[in-house]
Amino acid sequence: MSFSKYAFSVVPMSREQARMCSSWTYVPPYDRIYGWLPWDQMEALGVEFGDPDIRSQQYISVLDAEGSLSGFAQLFPMINVVRLGIGMRPDLCGNGMGKSFVQTIVREARIRYPDLPVDLEVQDWNERAIRTYLKSGFEITDTYEKQTPEGLGRFHCMVYEGD
């Protein structure tokens, strides 16, 4: 992996960091991807990082060099692969930090799951994310349709091929 001028690190996601992530608001069309329930509901229902067990097992917080929360990732182990879910703080998106951000997450996934390939899913309209993932060492290996809250969506599966 190449080094970047942006330095990120990862830590286990705390309850407070999870609450902060659930409050982020993204501009259209990205708001379609990160439409979390309000924190109190996420926590009460045990949804995603609102569930303390899922949060501790699968979620990490991504911090910048000053220790500020810059985003999160879900490292979801599946059969023969670890799938990433990635979210950068909305005000940081589109500022050229994506490659370093994603590579930091991939590095953690490979530490935790050294024998598993790393992949992710991205909707085919999300060109900004696709460019970042390609720059970070991912390649599109499959394209398919699946249901979303808005109906049928087209997705790319991208597998990390870097190093």
Describe this structure in words.
29% of the residues lie in helices and 33% in strands. The protein has five helices and seven strands. The chain has a seven-stranded mixed sheet with strand order 1-2-3-4-5-7-6, sandwiched between helices. The protein has 163 residues and is α+β, with helices and mostly antiparallel strands. Strand 2 and strand 3 form a beta hairpin.
Lay out the secondary structure.
Blueprint: E1 9-12, H1 15-23, H2 39-45, H3 52-58, E2 59-63, E3 69-78, E4 81-88, H4 98-112, E5 118-123, H5 127-135, E6 138-148, E7 151-160
Parallel strand pairs: 4-5
Antiparallel strand pairs: 1-2, 2-3, 3-4, 5-7, 6-7
Report the structural category. alpha+beta
Residue share in helix: 25-40%
Lateral strand order in the biggest sheet? 1-2-3-4-5-7-6
How would you state the average pLDDT, rounded? 93
Ends distance: 6 Å
Which word captures the global form?
globular
Main beta sheet, described? 7 strands, mixed
Helix-strand string: EHHHEEEHEHEE
- The whole-angstrom Rg is 15 Å
Strand content: 25-35%
* Number of E strands: 7
Instruction: List unreliable stretches of 5+ residues.
Output: none
H/I helix tally: 5
